[in-house]
Inverse folding.
């Protein structure tokens, strides 16, 4: 962390107290994965791919991306992205898959 950054945080704390240290909105590309999409993914991971018409016993990032495109018309890339941690604590990254419950 640079000196100017430390002073920025100190100024924010002086002006706003502890609440000034919380992360703030930033400019940039809007999120592709909204709360609705995150909830859909979490619901998928709780179930079995065969319940969604897939002939598989495991959810992979590729299958999730295909499902989101087919069901919600949302394009997400299953590889090349950062690891994603959902509010339920489930982590996905392109090299992993989630075993569906039996």
């Amino acid at each position: 962390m640079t000196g100017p950054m430390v002073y920025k945080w100190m100024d924010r704390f002086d002006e706003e107290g502890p609440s000034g240290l919380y992360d703030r909105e930033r400019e940039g590309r809007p999120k592709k994965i909204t709360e609705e999409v995150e909830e859909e993914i979490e619901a998928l991971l709780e179930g079995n791919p065969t319940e969604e018409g897939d002939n598989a016993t495991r959810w992979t990032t590729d299958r999730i991306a295909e499902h989101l495109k087919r069901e919600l018309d949302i394009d997400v890339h299953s590889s090349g992205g950062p690891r994603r941690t959902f509010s339920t604590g489930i982590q996905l990254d392109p090299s992993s898959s989630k075993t569906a419950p039996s």
